Amino acid sequence: MNTRRIFLLLGMMTFFVFLPLTTHAHTNDSEGFSFIEVNEETIHYELKLDLEEFAEAMSREMNESQLFDTDTVQEFLNARIEVYADGVIVEGVIEQAEIETIQERPVAVMNLTYEMKRKPEKIILDYHMFFDETAPSHANFVTIDMDGVKKQIILTYSSRQLEVGEMSFIQNAKQFLSLGVKHIFTGYDHILFILALLFGAKTIRNILSLVTAFTLAHSITLALATFDLVQLPSRIVESAIALSIIYVALIHLLNLDAKHHPWLAFGFGLIHGFGFAGILSEMQLEGSQMAMSLLSFNLGIELGQLFIVSLAFPLILWIKKSTKKPVKWIIPGISVCILVFGLVWFFQRAF
């Protein structure tokens, strides 16, 4: 056998050995496509994923009817694709879902809308689709259009985040200030604890010492948790907050003339601070702006807290000074309600 025939034979053998690899190379590629458009108060996100791979990741059959089970698909996507508008996470709602055929392969096409109150200055996309489940080699080709400027990036296992824009110092402070105010007004357990504290306050000086102690304590643990220096399981924190409500309400019910001391407010304030920090853990806080974000958020909490105290305490003093018997039962009655809420929350959170 001459040299030419040997090389010909080796070439044919190489061809047949690598033929299966080459014919399956493309079909084994894991690819996705994202087209994102940022508008005044909405973000439109068109996501394209291989249908078979999408079905495998969801551990279910995936046809057109299954794809239109938007609640399940939407929950799946929001758990793996996180969009932050100026640091605040926004959840997508599937407006349309369909199946297309691209290069003879079925592709799931989903159009999501993210609602916002105003146009964001900065968008962050955290993408975790398939990486940790079915396809570490997955890649998503992203095109984002913001303020008329388009940016392309490829998201991979080692590079899962896209950032566009830059949030200003003032916008960051305003946003977290507003978030702090909103958080205290929607944190009903914190409000009831503050009310229970006010029931045991005798003078303006006393209430100032209680509020100061509570503020100082929750500011300490809020900072420790936000900077990830101290972390406690959320179940323990939320259960302890419920217990603080129960304890303070019981003190007042057992002795209507009991006076709350600052150390009590400080001790329970440490626990409530971890509760305040829970919402910040869901946000994209950057190192350069973390201190200002934390300060603004805490200031918002204090403003909301001050507003509650300024409305409630004069009314509580009037009730205590009233000589009418029906009025005298208002505070004990409210204390019983606070105690009941605390008990319900404790059993819900602890068990």
Span from first to last CA? 81 Å
* Rounded radius of gyration (Å): 29 Å
Task: Choose one word for the global shape.
Answer: elongated
How helix-rich are the residues, as a percent range? 55-70%
> What is the subunit organization of this protein?
single chain
Report the average pLDDT across residues. 83
- Order of adjacent strands in the largest pleated sheet: 5-6-2-1-8-9
Instruction: Let me know the largest β-sheet.
Output: 6 strands, mixed
What count of structural domains?
2
Strand content: 15-25%
What class would the helix/strand composition place it in?
Answer: alpha+beta
Please tally the helical runs, counting DSSP H or I stretches of 4 or more residues.
Answer: 12
Number of strands: 10
Signal peptide: 1-25
Protein name: HupE/UreJ family protein
Pfam families: HupE_UreJ_2
Transmembrane segments: 176-200, 207-227, 239-256, 263-281, 293-317, 329-347
